[in-house]
Recover the amino acids of this structure.
């Protein structure tokens, strides 16, 4: 498959972002399957290979945005971290360099497809107390021709995460 003129790396290639176990667990996958819709994608009910492949592609696509993005505020917690210290505002994005990355162990498991206007990726990240869920939203970039502004939600537990999703 070709995306943006480049081949997509194989499923869970070494060093690929989101290189964690692709399943959230049966209870979580069932709950996500009931919420899926035309713009809300999880593939939790799909065969494991299909689900894993889809999530692998999501992680790859998100990594492309992060590489060209900036994150205001602190990056000490959450699924996204800076690779370029200056990538905390639009003028600090280093062209041709990887500016932001996903932390190790982050699983990208879904997408709210807003047709390119503030798409949101859903991720689970390990924490000291277990796991937390996050929304990683992509703003600007395409319309302005500049870098992508990345917003990361505060950490949520599973119930908080489900409440913030659009209705089924």
């Amino acid at each position: 498959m070709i995306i943006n003129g480049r081949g997509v790396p194989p499923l869970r290639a070494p060093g690929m972002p989101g290189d964690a176990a692709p399943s959230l667990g049966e209870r979580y996958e069932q709950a996500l399957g009931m919420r899926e819709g035309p713009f809300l994608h999880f593939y939790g009910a799909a065969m494991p290979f299909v689900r894993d492949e889809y999530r692998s592609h999501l992680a790859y696509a998100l990594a492309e945005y992060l590489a060209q993005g900036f994150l205001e505020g602190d990056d000490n917690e959450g699924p996204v971290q800076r690779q370029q210290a200056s990538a905390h505002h639009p003028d600090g994005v280093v062209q041709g360099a990887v500016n932001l990355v996903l932390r190790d162990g982050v699983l990208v498991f879904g997408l709210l497809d807003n047709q390119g206007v503030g798409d949101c990726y859903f991720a689970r990240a390990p924490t000291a107390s277990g796991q937390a869920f996050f929304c990683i939203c992509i703003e600007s970039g395409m319309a302005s021709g500049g870098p992508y502004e990345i917003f990361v939600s505060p950490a949520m537990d599973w119930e908080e995460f489900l409440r913030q999703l659009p209705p089924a």
